[in-house]
Structure formats: structure tokens, C-alpha cells
Amino acid sequence: MRDPAIPQRTERLLQSLGADPDFRDAVLGDLAEEFAIRAVWDGERAARWWYRRESVRVAPHLLRNWLGRTPARGLVRIAAAITAGWSSIFALEVVIVQGIAPVFGIPIEGRLLAVTSRTPLEAFALSVLFVVWTHCDGVLAGFVAAKVSPRSPLVGALAFTIVCGAAMVAGNFILPHGSVPLAFRLFNTLALVTGSVVGGLLASLGKNRRSRVASNDSV
Amino acid sequence: MSSATIGSFELTVLLAVARLGDDAYGLAVRRDVSERTRRDYSVGAIYTTLDRLEKKGFVLSRMTDPTPTRGGRSRRQFMVTAPGQRTIRSAERVAKAVWAGVGSSINPETA
Fold it and tell me: Would you place residue A45 in the very low, low, confident or very high pLDDT band (cuts 50, 70, 90)?
């Protein structure tokens, strides 16, 4: 009979929260041990459900450990991750605005205004395009923010998401937007926020998978 | 002598470590505390408290050999230090003093 398998992705995400290795290994080891017991008693499905639920409860403690361990260095890394995220968005925007958009004839001038200044069908198509574009911005920024903080990639991406999301929500209500509908602006914000979370997850899962393969190879 | 104070949950965890002796590691402490308090504590909450107790000098920890059931990870085993034992005795004295004289005057059935 095969051994029950721990939810690998969940474990990798917990590893990416950057807690002290001793603290993290003790916590993950306990989760693994309890998972094995529950898989025998309650079945693998119930054990997996328990593992995921318990991971949600454990995550704040791993984050707290990370922050408590190196508060100054941690804040510097978070600031670096946020800056890198913004920079990557800026770089992507330059590439699209200067290089890609003119080639395909996409109206860049007044990116948001373009949504309302066309026929309904065109406005809808452009809205979708811009929301997808913003989502891609978010994925890239989240990915870069995670890569900048290699010991705690998910923390870097989440920090960027929170700061960026808060700035965009504030901007939606404070800055003048002419006739651009609020719903579109909020969708745009949501696209960026979800994108950066996705980017952070991609970077975290990819990093841990590679380190796992490397450790298997060394054995 | 350690002058650090101890909270009620910290004391509960410290007592569990003392009770479990050589078998005091996160999972066992969690089970013990959860059974006695009838509350489901997370592994993280227990380790955060154990970490705090270690910083205060009430417990010591050491890593054991890795085991396959833990995904190749070690156990972090805890033991109560001398300041920890003194704190337990002190807390017991305080509790006895605080509870003295209450006895049968408290009866929720007739209140």
C-alpha cells in the first residue's frame, strides 16, 4: 500500500513564508506526522482537508516568526520587493506603449478614457483588453516581487499586492477619472491584485519545486 | 533567577511540557493542551508560545534525528529549565492563594 501524500503545493507555500528553518521544520514536521496518523484513521481525503485547514491557521505564525526574526532586514526586503514590482510594471508598460501597441493600433493615449470614447462594443472589447493587460502587469509584478525576496517569496508578493491594491483603491476614489466608470476602475484594481497574487504563487511554487528536485538529486 | 512574567496560556503550555517529560514536542504538547482545555489549538500557536517560553528561559529545545513519518524532518524536543520549574511552583502557590476560601461558596447550579 502506498504512503499517503501530503498536499505538496500547500507545503511549498508554507515553506515560502520565510520562517526560521528550525521553527518551520518543526511545524511542518508536526503537520506531516499528524497528517500520516489522520490518513490512517480518517482516510487520505479527510487528512488532506485537515492539512489544508491547519495550514491556513499555521501561516500567520510562520509570518510572525519571519517578521520577529529579522524585523529590519525583513522590512528592507519587503521595500525592495515592492519597488521591484512597481519597476517591472513600469518596464512592461514602456515596452507595450512604445513597442507593441503602435504595431497593433491599440489606442494608448488616455488608456482609461479610450474605454468610454468608443461605440459600446468597442468600449467593451477595450475594457476587457485593458483589464487583461492590467492582470498581466500584476502577474509580472507579483512574480518579480517574489523573486526579489528568495527566502520568503510569498511574503514579498503579498506585500506588493497589499501596498499596490491599497494605492489603487485610494486612487480610484481620490484621483479624478473623468467619465470612466467606477466598476471598470475597480475591475482594473481587482485584475492587478489577483494577478500579483498569481505571480507570487507561480514564483513560490516554482522555486520550491526546483529546490526539492535539487535536494532529491543530491540524495 | 528569571524575572520574566508568564501568561496563562504560556503556563498551560509550560505545564504540558513538564507533564510530558521526554516526549515533549510540538504535536504532543498540542494534543495535551487541546485535550485539557477542550480547545483546538493550531500547531503554529503552540510553537509560537514555546518559542516565547524559550526566549524567557523557561524551556530549552533540541533537535532529534530526522524521521520518515515527518517527511525527513527532525522533532524539536523541549524540556523545562530550572527557572521554568521555579515559575511553575510559584504559579501553583499563587493559584492556591487566590483560590483559598472559595470552596463550596461557588455553586453555579443554585446561583
Answer: very high
